[in-house]
Every structure is written in C-alpha cells, then in structure tokens.
Design a protein that fits this description.
This protein is mostly helical. It has three helices and no strands. The longest helix is centred in the middle third of the chain and has 18 residues, at about 35-50. The mean pLDDT is about 90.
Length: about 70
C-alpha cells in the first residue's frame, strides 16, 4: 500500500516485500479479528477524509501554483 494512505497498526498493516510468512500471519490474524477489521475500515475513512478529499487537494494545488507564480 501507499505510505501516504496506510498507517501501520492504525488502518492497515505494512509488511516488507517478499516476507510471505509475515503476510500470511497478518492475513490470518485479520481474518480472526473482526474488531480490528472494523477499526481499520473506520480509520481508513478518517485518513481519506483528512488527506484525499477533492476540495482539499484542489486547494493544495491552488496554493502550490500561487507560490510558483509568486516565485
């Protein structure tokens, strides 16, 4: 997952590439923990709303372009 989106332990689990044992263990743990899955899901919505709403992204681009024009 994208590091801007996934926050380890908050809304997902980050595992080093090719660590298949860790991936399997994390998958099994999530399959067996409905409370954590529900919490991760809710936290994903929080991260998305904080960082990726279209209006927020448009305002950020506008700010960047204004700074570039001003020099």
């Amino acid at each position: 997952g994208n590091a801007e989106i996934v926050r380890h332990g908050f809304n997902g689990i980050i595992i080093k590439p090719f660590n298949f044992d860790a991936f399997a263990a994390a998958t099994i743990a999530l399959l067996n923990d409905e409370k954590k899955r529900v919490q991760f899901s809710a936290n994903c919505q929080v991260v998305t709303q904080e960082n990726f709403l279209v209006s927020k992204m448009v305002n950020e681009y506008y700010r960047i372009f204004e700074e570039a024009i001003k020099g």
